[in-house]
Structures are given as C-alpha cells and as structure tokens.
C-alpha cells in the first residue's frame, strides 16, 4: 500500500496535482501539502519530499534567502508549515523510501536532487553534453519535461523512467 501511495504521490507531484496525493499519504498534513505545492510550485516544480533526506530539506528551508541564487524567503509560519510537511515525508522519514538513500553517506547533505545517488543511477545521462538541446529539457532539474503523464519520455533519449 505504501508503495502504491508513494507512486501516486510521485505521479501527482510531477503532473502538478501533488497536494491531494500527499493528503492521502499523510491525512494530518493537508495544509502543509497545499502550502508546499503552492509556494514551491510558484517558482519551480514542487519536488516530492521523499527525493531528499530531512537534513537536506532543513538546510534548504533554513537558507531560503539564498535559494539557488534567488531570495525565496517566506514568512516564518509558512516556512514552518512547509518544513513540517517536508520533514514528515522525507526519504528518511517513516513513510520514506530507504532505496532513495542508498549510496548517500550520512555525512553528506545534498541540496539538489540531481546530486542524489539514486537520481544519478537513473538519470546520470542528463548531466552530459547536449542536455539543453532536447525539446523541453533545458535543465536536468526539469523533471516534468520527460515525466509528463503522457507515457514514456519526452525530450530526448538516454535512460528511462
């Protein structure tokens, strides 16, 4: 059941309907899921919480004024709501997925999903030359260029889903 819900949550996150999917996974977190989807999704895809460990989400949220070259600061109440949701659904949370963490040393705190060993095992080809040339793929972080709910992949070859 957990795997089915996690797969549904990933599909929903990548298609833009993430808050309802996470509401199913964690009934007490509906407000946090909606706030995460709204605030994070306003600038970029709201990446699924189970793609990073809690320590990574904490580091990201503790430095929103320097969020990949942008000031993404939020008021403390909003930041707290999002952080609570992300921490409860992180890769190393009880509802998380230990496979996501395979190969990640406990001493490492990645702030980019593309730095996670699981991502590199599956999508490492996106880091090579020519990534920007595929239709819709301007960056390896644009997951929905390929994972778009239309089946298969769009925007260039190399690995699969």
Structural class of the secondary structure composition? mainly alpha
Using DSSP, what is the number of strands? 0
SSE order: HHHHHHH
Question: What is the residue-averaged pLDDT?
Answer: 76
Q: How helix-rich are the residues, as a percent range?
A: 40-55%
Low-confidence stretches at least 5 residues in length (pLDDT < 50)? 1-20, 152-161
Question: What can you see in these coordinates?
Answer:
- Helix content is about 40%, strand content about 0%.
- It contains seven helices and no strands.
- It is globular.
Q: Can I get a quick summary?
A:
The chain is an all-alpha fold and 161 residues long. The chain has helices spanning 2-15, 18-25, 30-41, 54-62, 76-88, 98-101, 117-123.
């Amino acid at each position: 059941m957990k795997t089915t819900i996690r797969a549904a949550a990933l599909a929903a996150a990548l298609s833009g309907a993430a808050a309802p999917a996470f509401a199913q996974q964690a009934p007490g977190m509906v407000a946090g899921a909606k706030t995460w989807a709204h605030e994070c999704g306003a600038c970029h895809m709201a990446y699924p919480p189970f793609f990073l460990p809690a320590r990574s989400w904490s580091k990201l949220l503790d430095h929103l004024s320097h969020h990949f070259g942008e000031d993404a600061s939020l008021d403390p109440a909003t930041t707290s709501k999002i952080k609570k949701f992300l921490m409860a659904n992180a890769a190393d949370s009880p509802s998380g997925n230990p496979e996501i963490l395979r190969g990640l040393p406990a001493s490492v705190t990645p702030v980019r999903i593309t730095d996670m060993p699981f991502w590199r095992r599956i999508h490492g080809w996106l880091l090579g030359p020519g990534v920007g040339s595929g239709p819709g793929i301007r960056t390896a972080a644009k997951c929905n260029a390929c994972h778009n709910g239309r089946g298969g992949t769009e925007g260039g070859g190399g690995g699969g889903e």
